[in-house]
């Protein structure tokens, strides 16, 4: 049976939530007082006892129900709605793209030019050192 036909694979749900929270297996293991290999085994398990699931949910900062009901479709929908709302209304009404006082691309180009200049100066310094020897 493939992964696509096992929608209630709790271990995979834990793995995806952990990844979405940008947490490594080692960090989750530390929070649970175990090791990375144990977390790997949990994430490969189709079922997990309720007590362990409650501990994992607490370590991940989510509810047990959030883990049990987790789906990729729900997360995509959540992030799409969050993005749509943050663009149209601003984040809590504080940020709105129309109030941005600078072009982010200009800042990237400015940073790139400064890095390029620093590299040129470094090359000149190294060439000067070589000529002195």
Structure, described:
This protein has helices at 10-20, 25-32, 36-43, 50-60, 64-68, 72-89, 104-132. By secondary structure, it is an all-alpha fold. It has two domains: 3-70, Orthogonal Bundle (434 Repressor (Amino-terminal Domain)); 102-133. Helix 2 (25-32) packs across helix 3 (36-43). The longest helix is centred in the last third of the chain and has 29 residues, at 104-132. 8% of the residues are buried. Residues 86-96 have low confidence and may be disordered. It holds the Pfam family HTH_3. This is Helix-turn-helix transcriptional regulator. Residues 14-67 form the HTH cro/C1-type domain.
**Portion in beta strands:** under 5%
CATH architecture identity of the largest domain? Orthogonal Bundle
Q: Class of the largest domain, according to the CATH hierarchy?
A: Mainly Alpha
Sheet bearing the most strands, described?
none
Measure the end-to-end span. Answer: 69 Å
Superfamily at the CATH H level of the largest domain? Answer: lambda repressor-like DNA-binding domains
Contiguous runs where pLDDT drops below 50 for at least 5 residues: 86-96
| Total count of helical runs of at least 4 residues | 7
Over all CA atoms, what is the radius of gyration? Answer: 24 Å
Encode the helix/strand succession as letters. Answer: HHHHHHH
Please estimate the helix content: 55-70%
Number of domains: 2
Average pLDDT, to the nearest integer?
Answer: 81
Determine the structural class based on helices, strands and strand pairing: mainly alpha
Number of strands: 0
CATH fold descriptor of the largest domain: 434 Repressor (Amino-terminal Domain)
Q: Outline, from the CA principal axes?
A: elongated
